[in-house]
Amino acid sequence: MRPSCGNSAQRMRECGFTLMELMIVIIILGILVGIVVAVFLNVQKKAANTAAMANIRMGSKAIENAYFKILSGPQNYLTAAYRNSYRDMAPPGTLAP
Q1: What are phi and psi of 49, to 5 degrees?
Q2: Which positions ≥6 away from 3 have C-beta within 8 Å?
Q3: With contact defined as beta carbons under 8 Å apart, do 17 and 2 qualify?
Q4: Which of 21, 32, 62, 72 has a Cα at 20 to 30 A from 96?
């Protein structure tokens, strides 16, 4: 049984935590830190995956926009002028280049 802690200096030295109590507290803190670190690493992995998926979606949209812009955009002025000039010069019944 522990002595009751009073005001004398000798009693104050005898009142405190035992080594076993301190070890239990350190073990519990270690377990909690391990859980927190594991959760934090999972959150980082999920954030990296989300960022990668967002980059892939943005790249996909950029390629899609460029593709549709090329298909639906106005023709090159020189190409259209070239076709129109030779269309007038082609003999009847033939296809112009």
Answers
A1: -65, -40
A2: 11, 14, 15
A3: no
A4: 72
Question: How far, in Å, are 54, 71, 89, 90, 95 from residue 81 at the CA level?
Answer: 43, 19, 13, 15, 16
Instruction: Please indicate, yes or no, whether the overall pTM of this predicted structure exceeds 0.70.
Output: no
DSSP letters for 13-24: HH-S--HHHHHH
Planar angle of CA 31, 34, 36, nearest 5 degrees: 110
**pLDDT per residue over 19-66, tens digit each?**
999 999 999 999 999 999 999 988 999 999 999 999 999 999 998 888
